[in-house]
Amino acid sequence: MNNNRRPLVLANWKMNMEPQEVGPYLDTILPEVEKDTDADVAVAGQDLYLAQMVAKVKGSQLAIAAQDAHWEDQGAFTGETSPKALSTIGVSYVMIGHFERRKFFNETDERVNLKTKAALKNGLKPIVDLDEDLSAYDGQAIDQVELSQLKKALTGISEEEMKDVTIAYEPTWAIGSGEAASAEQAEKSAALIRASLANLYNQDLANQTRILYGGSVNTSNAASFFKQADIDGILVGKAALNPQTFLDLIDIAQQA
Ligand code: 13P
């Protein structure tokens, strides 16, 4: 982590959490998030909970994120979620291009780019996810996959707009497997992403952009990621389903 960049701790609930668990979860973490403001904290819930979540955290430091959004503001797109509507109800962040969207819902780099632009246009802060395929896990190939995803995702996005963009690096093989990347592996990729941002834009912009690591983050390994120069936060799935564990992860970020 670098002091010029504010850490971000993001819980991705995915398609989890019962309706009756949403309020108590937020009640558990809200008072703690208020105490410390050394890190940004956000929770990404299922769409049907977002309005309730936004209402609950109103006036607090806790931000709410969506897990995806369409690239059009409105129209005949049955089952999709409008980025404009998300922004109107008070959602702050939107994840775009998560590995599970790419794998199960045919998300393409082109759509990730359209969705990132649409999010920015609507005042949402996109968290652009780069994954890496296990089949390509042999050094060079990984770099190529994630860098090509990065370049395509950011096509046509201005330097000014990049101030609101966070990049998340999530190795496919580490997601939900219980086997996180080592801090060194993750740092290598984050540094590479930062170097690419410097190439695509400039060094200043690269230095300002937040890069998260995600994939089997837990309370035992989280601190090791924050120790890395180019990792500015964590994107947490399973471990964040327990509010107490998520609180512990927030604490680790505050102390980093
Ligand atoms: P896990 O923390 O469950 O591996 O999930 C990571 C992830 O996909 C977060 O977006």
UniProtKB/TrEMBL annotation:
**Which chemical reaction does it catalyze?**
D-glyceraldehyde 3-phosphate = dihydroxyacetone phosphate
Query: SUPFAM superfamilies from the xrefs?
Result: Triosephosphate isomerase (TIM)
Q: Name one GO molecular function term.
A: triose-phosphate isomerase activity
* UniProt cross-references to PROSITE patterns, sorted A to Z: TIM_1, TIM_2
Quote the catalytic residue positions. Answer: H98 (electrophile), E170 (proton acceptor)
State the InterPro entries in the record: Aldolase_TIM (IPR013785), TIM_sf (IPR035990), TrioseP_Isoase_bac/euk (IPR022896), Triosephosphate_isomerase (IPR000652), Triosephosphate_isomerase_AS (IPR020861)
Q: Which residues bind substrate?
A: N12, W13, K14, G176, S216
**Swiss-Prot/TrEMBL keywords:** Cytoplasm, Gluconeogenesis, Glycolysis, Isomerase
- What residue stretch is flagged as signal peptide? none
**Localisation per UniProt entry:** Cytoplasm
Reported EC number(s) for this entry are 5.3.1.1
Q: Which Pfam families match?
A: TIM
Q: Does the keyword NAD apply?
A: no
Similarity section: Belongs to the triosephosphate isomerase family.
Q: How does it assemble?
A: Homodimer.
Its protein name is Triosephosphate isomerase
Which organism's genome codes for this protein?
Fructobacillus apis
Question: What is this protein's gene name?
Answer: tpiA
